[in-house]
Amino acid sequence: MTLYSATITLILVMDPLGNIPLFLSVLNHVDPRKRQRIILREATIALVILVIFLFFGQYILEGMHISQPALEIAGGIILFLIAIRMIFPHESHEERARRDTDPFIVPLAVPLIAGPSTMTMVMLLASQAPYNRFGLSLALMIAWSITTVILVFADALRKVLGERGLTAIERLMGMILTTMAVQMFLSGFEQFLHA
Length: 195
Prior knowledge:
Low-confidence stretches: 97-101
Strand content: under 5%
Mean pLDDT: 85
Number of strands: 0
Helix content: over 70%
Number of domains: 1
Distance between the termini: 21 Å
Shape: globular
């Protein structure tokens, strides 16, 4: 996977535009001047978690005897489910409850930025290119930087794009992610057949 495609995939999985309403609702009671600091803190925590998974996730997988095709197929399924939720959003009781909790690590850093899907994607990219950790680290830093900038300016973006604009962009990203998920699933299945 190229730097460009890895970066785009990570941005789509992190879903910064889709997270704008969630971030704003979680931080609704926080002073607007403190919001940006909280977002930066939570984004930094998420980055540390993702870097750990980038460098040590492979050892976790090897310890659990999870093969490359299994990881690709699982990653494809998870991405597909995320994409479906982006296209057809539905808020669960658990997500509503998360909004009322203290925004330290949970729910902003984990699972909104560094969620299970992002962790899986980082491990999957690392297993596909085990000798290109520098390139993957760069892709992760670029994706994280873009996500953080979008979330820091969440208030302004919501005013410019409006709720309908944000929804339309998120659904478009969901459709792109769907095709990537199907391709990942097919690649994993093809590897399994050849193994």
